[in-house]
Amino acid sequence: MTMTQEQLKQAVARAAIDYVPQGIIGVGTGSTANFFIDELATIKGRFEAAVASSEATAQRLRSHGIQVLDLNSVGELEIYVDGADEITRHMHMIKGGGGALTREKIVAACSKKFICMADESKLVDVLGKFPLPVEVIPMAQSHVARELAKLGGQPRLRAGFTTDNGNVILDVHNLVIANPVELETQINQIVGVVTNGLFSQRPADVLLLGTTGGVKILRAAD
Ligand SMILES: O=C[C@H](O)[C@H](O)[C@H](O)COP(=O)(O)O
After folding, report:
1. Contact, 7 vs 35, CB < 8 A?
2. What CATH number is attached to the domain comprising 187?
């Protein structure tokens, strides 16, 4: 039986519930993360609270009566659960399609384990078909765009969009991402860049991959 992308997202969100610890959970942003939040609502009481990676996620968690804590008021988190726009078998990802990349990277950095939920369309051999989101301080937009063009990409301003941090997003098309770890550093070194959507220096630990044959569990070493 073929499943829609929405059904695959829901299946991986359900599978992610197995990883929820008793304490505080880091929660990602996006349509897959939303399914996960809805699943969390069904096991309230089995965990303490959540830290949100965006205002939208905080709002959805609260709407289910789940307590949302400030990241600065908690210690290291056991797990961070989130979706991705693209992911490789090395667990390197592109994130930020929803513009939440910076807060997502911060919460992921504070978590012992990153559980990524993705439907099979997101698994790629090489990152970069999905335009790479880069969060930029507004006054540096033109400068950063010129520097990104020197790296071979074609940056486009995400029109009418402001991040939760009050910044703009440049979506960089046609980048050749042969070495994601190196490129992540290179882009972050451009003055005016807040962060970029490459998650390769802090890759996922577990990938829950939604396929029509069921949810597959992949790890970096697999
Ligand atoms: O900023 C958004 C996040 O990085 C999302 O996790 C990513 O865009 C995947 O979103 P979705 O689950 O909606 O495909």
Report:
1. no
2. 3.30.70.260
